Amino acid sequence: AVAGESALDRMACGLGGKLVLPMIKEHIMQMLQNPDWKCRHAGLMALSAIGEGCHQQMEGILNEIVNLVLLFLQDPHPRVRYAACNAIGQMATDFAPGFQKKFHEKVIAALLQTMEDQGNQRVQAHAAAALINFTEDCPKSLLIPYLDNLVKHLHSTMVLKLQELIEKGTKLVLEQVVTSIASVADTAEEKFVPYYDLFMPSLKHIVENAVQKELRLLRGKTIECISLIGPCSR
Questions:
Q1: pLDDT(159) > 80
Q2: Which tens digits make up the pLDDT trace of 61-95?
Q3: What is the band of 11 on the pLDDT scale with cuts at 50, 70, 90?
Q4: Model-level pTM?
Q5: Domain count, the chain
Q6: Which residue range is the domain that position 200 belongs to?
Q7: Long-range contacts, stretch 77-82, CB < 8 angstroms, 24+ apart
Q8: How far apart are the first and last CA of the chain?
Q9: Span 133-158, mean pLDDT?
Q10: Is residue 25, in this structure, part of any structural domain at all?
């Protein structure tokens, strides 16, 4: 699957969107309507792969594509929801900052809702990863109106996942949420000051207690997060 996505990406970049998009758009649409989840998953991953090479041609139909992809965040199969998160995250990078300017309202709301998918950690983590992609290239002025809601969701998820780490040793979602907090703080800059005291106790707890070898990545991400939040408080 990864080889296929890589080949699609190279083909789109090499041949150009004017040639590639008309050839594969109909196939992707058929796959997305297929009752077999594997086809829907493959269609969304294909969509993720061609964005860079078909940039100019996809921009004109981006509204249609985004609305379609967002529907799959509600798909009954978790692998399809995962692929929808992947497509949103990739488009947020490939079409930035226009993507953020056009779709901030619907995309932020949809990703935050998907991060509440307690039944599937991989979907939760990938929704957080897509949010990172989105906020990294989001103009500060667009992000500020959503700050309270973002903070509320990120903090509640962090607290819940920290408890899960202590009780079950699961860390995947927590790693991504910590990075999401860092990304939001980095974009919001001084506007993040009021939230410093809300996040810092949990972040310090992670740094002080995540000393095992398997938690090294989480600890590193948390230290990076603190380094980004810290300057906000000055």
A1: yes
A2: 999 999 999 999 999 999 999 999 999 999 999 99
A3: confident
A4: 0.93
A5: 1
A6: 147-234
A7: 77/37, 77/40, 77/41, 78/117, 78/119, 78/120, 78/122, 78/123, 79/37, 79/38, 79/41, 80/37, 80/40, 80/41, 80/44, 81/114, 81/117, 81/120, 81/123, 82/41, 82/120, 82/122, 82/123, 82/126
A8: 47
A9: 98
A10: no
